[in-house]
Every structure is written in structure tokens, then in C-alpha cells.
Amino acid sequence: MTIGEIIGIWVAAGLTLMMFSFIYRDNAFFKLGEHLYLGISVGYFVNIQYWQVLVPDVYRAIKVNHDFLALIPSILGIFILLRLIPSLAWLSRMSFAFYIGGFAGLAIPNVLHGYFLPQLFETLRPFDAGWAGNLNQLVILLGVFTVIIFFFFSLEHKNVVGGISRVGLFFIMVSFGASFGYTVMARISLLVGRFQFLIDDWIMGVIFRQGG
Amino acid sequence: MDFVNTILNLDRRVIYTIVGLLVAIPLIWPFSLPVIPTPETRGIYNAMDALPPGSHVMIAADFDPASKPELLPMLEALLAHCFIKDLKPHLLTLWPSGPGLAQQAIERQAEKYGKESGTDWCFLGFRYGTVAVILGMTSSITDTFVTDFYGKATSSMPIYERVSDIADMDYLVDIAAGATVEYWVVYAAEPEGVPMGASCTAVSATSYYPLLQAGQITGLSGGMKGTAEYEVLLREEYGQSFNIPTGDATKGMDAQSAVHVFIVLSIIIANICYFISLRREREERRKA
Amino acid sequence: MLFFKRQWPIIVAFVCGIVMWARYYIPTEQSQTLQDEFVRWARILFGFAAMLGILSLLHHHWNKIKFKRPGYGFSWITLVAFVIMALTGLLPISWQWIGFAESFRDLDGPHMYLFEYMFVPMQATMFSVLAFFIASAGFRAFRARSVEATALLVAGCIIMIGRVPVGDLITSGWTASIGGTDYSILPFAQVTDWLLNIPNAAAQRGIILGVILSQIAIAVRIIFGIERTYMGGGD
Amino acid sequence: MRKMLLIAGLAALAVVVPTLAAAEVPVPIETEVIDVPNDDGSALGVLWFWDGDAGLDIRVTVEADVTRDELDSYQLTVDETDLLQRAREELADRLGPILPDLYEATAQAAELQLRLRAAESEGNPDAASIRQEYWQQQRRATRLGRQRDKLWEWFEGRLRRPGGDYIFERAQTFDYLTATLDHSNWVPLAEVSGIGATLEEGVITWSPKSEAVERFGHHPYEPDKVYYAVGTYRALNPGMLSGSYTNEPDEIDYTAPRTITLNLEQGRTYNLRLVVERMQMDGDEWYTDENDRPVVLESATFDLGGGAPRVNFFNGAYFNNLIFAVGFAVIILIAIMLARRNPNMFIRRISGLEAVDEAIGRATEMGKPVLYLCGLDSLATLSTLAAINILGRVARRIADYDSDLVVPNRDPVVLTVAQEVVREAYIDQGRPDAYKEDNIFFVTDDQFSFTATTCAIMMRERPAANFFMGYYYAESLLLAETGASTGAIQIAGTDALHQLPFFITTCDYTLIGEELYAASAYLSREPMLLGSLKGQDLGKALIMVLIIIQTLLFAIHAVIALSNPGILQQSWDWLKLLVEPL
Question: Which residues have a Cβ under 8 Å from the Cβ of D329 and sit 6 or more positions away?
Fold first, then answer.
């Protein structure tokens, strides 16, 4: 292990503990870490921006490929940055209108084809999966129907409709429960990951110098 | 104060300490619970394993360090699988903070299996635009990523001699910490007819089950558990011959299990106490 | 002038929207080129839009320092960290003199060093802190207040146990023999699978169909100039 | 409609003329060449049938008669040839001194890497010094490589014309194509679209990807027939044809590719033929000789006739997509128009909104403040706008009751709008005196500090009711848990699906997803929101009707399945036209 790596791991461990100090309460160490993180991440994004966008898409397109059309989006891009100057902010609308409008147009047929139709197709397909499969398919049909009823705002939730929407709510709750369980899992995984770093890399690897 | 009130007013610090210990202890003294792969994860593994050597696989590493423990080992396992099976991975990321981790992963695996950039694999790097990038690649990969991450022109790479766009890929995998799976399905996998697998953080796993149900993705790996399952599948089959060490996600499963059990028990106990105290209140009110 | 400020963007959005929509149904090469070119332009625009976020953040912190608002000391840290991180990657100089690799692109260059030992640990820790809070909320706030909350909590607990190895372990021993076949009494793994694949998928599908409809509604509103929030305020 | 297009796409029908009949090779009984429907005019569809199964040992290749006219578009002018020549020479001059060093450094680095790996696995103490050496060579190679890339960039910049025409590539294509046509004008067509096709040594082998055949297209009259689309052919490396091909880089460090892929030209008529070969087998695989090539035992060619790839102006496969897209758009626009005329369109009661009054009432009783959050996103987010709309209503009720309303903000723009809305509400209720601007304030824009401050307010002031409306991230849990521990009535509303579970378990009432928008439309009566909500409802009604129809058919099927088993299939065939994504 090089000196650089050892210093790096100490720094990383220190920063990890700094961020953990938020558990106790919001404090100066945490704020320090948060602001440091902000600066580092913005510095990192600037690099990504430069090397992965400006160089290949603008510089290379014009210098190497002689593709002068790339100048137009670059000018529109500069318009976007003018949003920071209040008197010229209106210029940015042109750029936003261009891409937000265009993507709205792209989205309609693509979302229908890639998501809406396949899901609808799968919901409506005839059952042919044997006894248990058909039962499951029925449950899915029921679930989709009742959930849509729950989010249907043109009917009062009374009597039959109320009952159906309550079934829908129950489906939603089971699904949210699943997502709840999974979210808990995710957060704990992150904690486990941090502890793996602290224990394996820092305490065992650097302080006790065991393993590699 | 009796038990019920003690539980209901338990100090936060006690709980924090228990959680900290439950994570730390299994990491220091592991008890190696068996990880049994689910059909969802097998869906990705089997699809990858069935590809003939020389097939092209596109892997999108759409995550950042915030989900490193969940997804980075998955990326490494997938890349290792590719290199073991002689598949050609095309790695890219749609997340601006993604390239750093992806670079580490692919360079580590490529070095281990002795694979060449530009011939056996390609790390395309990052471009802004998510949907714009995917749509661009459905028409041409080398026009969308004119250069790879290292600034080398992609059009002159041998790996792009036979493939030009996403339709030429044999499999797609999105390793996603956000909503990119949707975009990959809508703009790439469905219209181009390329089979796809999704690996996501546990937070968003539930929202992709309809896609799995409808066969729009062949498999789904959710969070660190899914990753651990993939590691286990890979190790079971190739661990001996390729000297694959136990993965980080597999190692973390003991701690994960311990904390889960604790949280579930705590919810149950706290709710029981809550109902007891509710009843007591009601009784007291009746007396008064 | 007012025309360019108000009507012009709406016309642009309408034309772009309708063209990109209609071209989907036209399979000619020119139509594909049109989309490719739009997509390439949009990619460059996205790059600049991302820069806007960066600039406004720096602007915010600069102002904080300039007007000495509370906590402006922390803003110095942000700015200094930014400058160091940016320069390590952008400066075309050799870093070998302080023991790094020559270029920032190499894994042992200074830029990736900062990335690995500062950016990664801090971002990874940020959300892992929540694990502690979830555990404490389990004691203090997750209550079965209503039928719905109960359903949610029960499903959540089943998933939490069923989706980790311990779920398989604690139920593997408990089996009942019916007609010679061993059935698991508490088949957590199977129940979990069923919950996720059937009721969960059904609910998510219902939600997705609704969400897609609202996405289409918003897209239609944008194309026809009814939704104008993207334009920001002002005249 | 789709059928019509397919018929229009039918180009030619050819009768099979076996030119070289051999007994062992299966003879296609019927063949056709058609223009591929719904494409951009780049491909021809080829269709043929065997009498039975052709067998694993049969190799089929589609070949096209490519004429020399095709060369015209790649021909270089004299000036261009001259320019290319000069650029090449200059590049060779400048690269000359770099290349040997670069190759040497790369080779050494590769060798050192192997040694390093060996040393590391043996635990050899020299590993550190080898690593040092390896990195040195690696860096040298990287540096030289960068110099080379720079020179290549310069070269490309000189030879590329605006519009993407690259003289170097064009010259190469010309050479390749000339050599290929000198060899034979019958060129194998590569790339069988939609089907996993591989080309090895000018021969296509295909294996249908899952469902790809089914999805790709069908014969216009007989839907079971599948055609193979062929749109490109490959020009081969002249060296490969003469047998002198090597993979070595030339004097300008360029490794010539083995093949170049070219497209069939739109509108030009090509004559096609089918080459059918019987291969020598080795078990289930083709037997390969010492040069790794399969051995052909018998072969025969069959003329397929001619066809020209033609451009289509409408993709018939997307007809159902168009119906849905236009249908939804029209419904939404009409609904918004109607809502402009009549803003009192019916929307069901949202039960969460009734809980709002109850919560405010309780706060007044206890003489405690009410806390309201508009979420953590900016004003551009839909849920933030919805939260502001609901804030107006809450402020109005509070003005009636005379308790305090506390609104911490994360976004300065949201702050000003929130102040405006609350002030208006107090004025509307005739209580401008009760409005306290200090209670609606900016906290900080960073996520966790905002959360910490807001939690501190909850602990200190102990509001009787907390409202969490708008968009939330991971902090939802912290906010809602702290609120619950103070014993406040909590009402949440968000479309952040991943945060909803935490709100549902910790709050007394939660507006789920679209309910938040509906509540906002219900209160604001803004035509855009109201109309679009109504339009979406109609869309949902359509989905529900389809589900009901399908369920009824299932029921009918279950009852009368015995008498008429085909009924479900028939109805499904009909419905499939509408919903199947092609």
C-alpha cells in the first residue's frame, strides 16, 4: 500500500465519520462535510461536462468533422446560461421551448409503444397459464382495475365504487409495503457498505495493516 | 416506568448503538448465511450465460457512489461474467457522476482477465441527455459516442466493425439507481427488439415488476441481495476455474439480515406496546 | 419584442413537438436523420442546461460570501473544493512531480484520487445515515394506525424477512408433511415472490397506466402551449 | 389499413427456375422478392418455402447482382486524390518517428503486465519494482498514443468535408468495392434484419432471436409466412480476396478492416438469387477443415427475380399507436376547452381534504400553531404547484380560526409565492391583521440542514398539525417521524412514490400520487388542471372498459367453452389489432 493510499483512506474514513455525526445532530462537522462534498461534486461535474460534452460534441464536431451545424445548439446552449442575467433571461425560453417541445413530441408515441401498449397487451392477454396461473392472472386483472378506479376522479367513492376503490387501495398498500421493505433494505445496504469500508479498509487494512 | 413505556420512550441512542453493533459484528465475525438465488436474478444470469462467445452486451452503469455498495459489485460481476464467457461489453453511463466508478470497475476486471480496450470491450463514458443519448444510439453508437471515455475515436475501433447500433447488441443490462430502466425499455429494448435485464437499487425494485411480468425485461436484480445472488451464481459455476473471491455484496448479507430481523422485531414489539398503552388510556378514561 | 418573448417560444415548442411526434410514423431515411439531428442538438443543450445548475450554485455561494450571510464560511469551503477539483482535471500539466500519474484520466491521477477518497465516501455516507433513522422510526413512529397502514407494515415486514438469507434459514426447518410431501409452514420466500409478482405488479401496473396518461397529458399541454411553466416567470 | 400497405409493398413474384439442380439439395417450391413494408426503403424482403424441413446441414445465402454503376458514388475526383495523397504522405512523415517507439512501449508494457501478474500471484518480492517498470512503459505508451491520436485527428480534419463525407473512407470503399466486383458481381447480402444474423467469410447464418421472427413481419396474404429482410452487402478487403491480407498496421498506423458494409441503393433494381448448399456435418455442427472453414458437399443456385427497395411514407405497424396518441390528445384538449367554459366540472371529494379542517380545528382548540411544508422541489415541479394551491385553502381556514400558520421554505421562489398566497387568503377572509409575514420564511437550500431546522421547529413549538405536501426525498422519514413523536395530527400528500410508504405509516392521512393533483384541481378550479384530469379520467375509463370486456369474455369462455372453444381466440384476435405493440 502506498503512502498516497494510506492518506487517502484516512481522509475518506474521517469524512465518513464527519457525515455520520449528523446522527447525533446537525453540527458544524456535518455542515463542513456537506459543503466540501458540494464543492468536490461540482468540480467533478465541470470536468465531465468539459471532457465528455464540450470536447467530443462541440470542439471535435467543428474542428475535426467540420460540422458547423453544431454551432446552433451551442448558441442555444449559451442562451440557457443567460437565464442567470435577468434582463436576458427570456432568451433561454427559446432553447427550453426547443428541447422541451421536441421531447414532448418524442415522448407521446414512444411511451405508448414502449410502455403503455405492452402493459395493456399483457393485462388483456387471454389466460393460458394453467389453474394457478389463471388465478394469478385474475388477481392481476382485479388489481389493475381496482387501482385505476381508486385514481378515477369522476365518480364519488360511495357504495359499490367505494368498495372497489378500497380494494384498489389495499393493492396499493401491499405494493407500498413491498417498496417500504425494499427501501429499508437499500438504506441498510448503504450502511453495510460504509461499515465494510471502515472495518476492512481502514481499521483492518490501515490501522492493523492486515491483508491487502 | 414499566416495560411498555420504556419501549415507547426508548432513547434514540440505544437504537443507534444496537444497529451499529448489528452491522459491525457480522462483518468482523461472519456467520455466512447461505444466499439462495431468486428466479428474478437468474433471469439475467441465464440470459447472459446463454449468449454465444463474441456476442455484444451493452451495460449501462447509471448509478453514482450513493448506491456503490448495492450496484458496483453487480457491475463487476457482470463484467467478470462477460470476460469469462468472451462476451464483448460496451459500458456507458447516463449519470454524470457515474464514469468514475465504472472506470474503476472495468479497468480492474479487464486487467484481471487480460482483455483489450477497443477490441474486447469499450468504455464509452458519459454524455448528457439520457433519452437523447439512448435514441442516438438506436441509430448509431459511434455517432453518439464519437470518442470513448479515453478520448479515442470509436469509429476506428475493431469492436465497432460488426456492430453499429443498439439493434446489433445481443443483450442490454441497465444497472440503475434512478428511473433510467424505463427509458431503456421505452426507447431501446422495445423498439429495437433487444432482450434486456435490469439491476436496480432496492428502493426502485418494486416498480419494475410489471415489466418483468410482461416479459419486457428478462430478469431483475434488486439491491444488494440481487447483487449477492448474482455473485453467488457466478461463483458456483466459474469460481473454481477463474479464482473469483467472495463478493462484497455476499459478505454484507449477514449484517443485512441481522438488521432486518432487528427492525421487524422492533416494529412488532413497538406496535404491541402501542396497543397496550392505547387500551390502558381507554381504561383510564373510563375510570375517570 | 414582446412577440419574441411570449409567442415565439410557444410556436417553437409546437413546431418541434408536432414534427418529432409525426416523424415517428414516417419511416424514411430523412425522417430518421431529422430525429438524429434533433437528438444530437438536445444532447448539447442538456450539457449547457447542466452547466446552468453548476453556475447558479456557484453564484449562490459567491453571493453568500459577498454579503457575509450567516454561514458564509462554509461557502468558502465549497468554492475552494470546487476550484481544486476542477483544476486537477482540467489543467493540461503533468502531475508526476507530486507522485501522481501523468494525466487525470489515469486511475492514480489527482482528480480520480480526490474522486475516490472524498467524493465517493461522502456521497455514499450521506444516505447510509438514514439506516439509523429507519431503525429508530421503527420503534417510534411505524404504527398500525389504520387498516391500510397495517397492510403496508405487514407486507413490508414479510419482504424484509423474505428478501434476505435469514428468511430462507428460519423457515427451512419448519415443514409439515401432507401426503408425503413436505410443505413449508412459513414459506417466506414463496410468499414474498408471490406478493412481488402478483399484487405488487398489479398495483404498479395500475399506477403506471395512470402515470403514462398524465405524461401524455403534460406532453400535449406543452405542445399546444397550454402548459408554460417551463418558460419561467416574467414577461 | 395495415394489410393495404403490405399489398402495396408487394413488388414482384417470381417463378422458381433452378439453374443447377442437384438431387441432394432441397429445392425451394415457391419464392418471392418483395419490398419490405413500413421501412425506410433500404431493404428487400426475400421469402421462400421448402417442402418440409431443410435440415441443419443446409446453408442458405441470398446474393444480389451488384452492377458497376454502384461505384460511381465513391469515385474520387483528381483534386481529392491529390489531397488524400499529400495528407497521407505528411501523416506518414510525422508519424514515422513516433510509431516504432509506440509499438515497442506497448509490447513491453504488455510483457511486463504478464510478468507482474505472475510475480504477484507467486508473492515474488520483485513485484514492486516490476510494477514500477510496468507503469513507466504504460505511461510512455499512453503519451505516444496521445501524440498519434492528435495526428490522426489532424488528418481526419483535413480530409473530412462538411456533411460528414470523409475522403479517406470513400477512397477505401472504392478500392474494396472494385476488388469485390472484379471477383464476382454476385455479392452476398448481409445482415438479416430482426434475426440474429452473423456473417463469416461472406456467408450469412441466422438464428431467430426470441420472437423476432414473429415480430418482424408477415406475408401479406399468408400471415404464417415470414420473410427475411436484406438491406446491406459487404465489400471485401482486396487483400483478403487475393490472399495477401494481414492484420498489420501500415505506414500510417492503419489496420485495414476486413469488410465494409454498404447499403442497397433506394429505387435501384437488384436481381437476387438463392444459394443453397449442403455442408459436411460433424455431429450437430458443420464440419470445418484445417483452415477452420466449413466444407460444401453440394450446392445449387436459384434465381429469385428482381426487386427494388422502395421508400414508404407511413409505418403501418404503428397504426394503433397513432390512434391512441391522437385519441388521447384530442380528448385532453377537448376536456381542457370544456373546463374553460365550465369550471364546475365534477371531481369526487378527496377525503384527505376533509381531514384538513379537522386538523385545523384541533390546532385552534389547543391554541397551537399549524406547520405547512410545500416540499423540497422548485416551483417547476407539479406537486409544488399543487402544494401551493392547497396552502391557499389551509390559510383561509386558519384565518377563520385565529391560529398561527408556520411555513418554512427551501426555495426562495416558492417562498415568495407562498407569502403571496397566504396574504391573499387572510385578506379574503377579512383578517389582514392576523397575517404574520415572519411565519413564512426561508430556511436554507440544503436538504439535510433544512430538515434539521424544520425538525427543531417541530420539537420546540410542538404544532398541533403538520402538513407535508409537495415533493420529498429521503428526508420524508425524518420529518414525519419527528412530527409523529410530538403527537401532532399529520397530513401528507406527495407523488414521490418511494417516500409514500413512510408517510402512510407515520401520518394520519396521506394523499397518494394523483390524489394530490386532484385535490389541487378541486380547490383551484384551474381549467388546465381540471380539464387534463378529466381527460385522463376518460383514458382510464377506456382501459377499464377494455378490462371489463376481456373479463366478460373470459367468463363467457368459461361457460360456453365446450360448445365454441374458438370464441375467446376470435375476440382476442380482434382486440389484439388494437393493443399489440408491433
Answer: A108, C216, C220
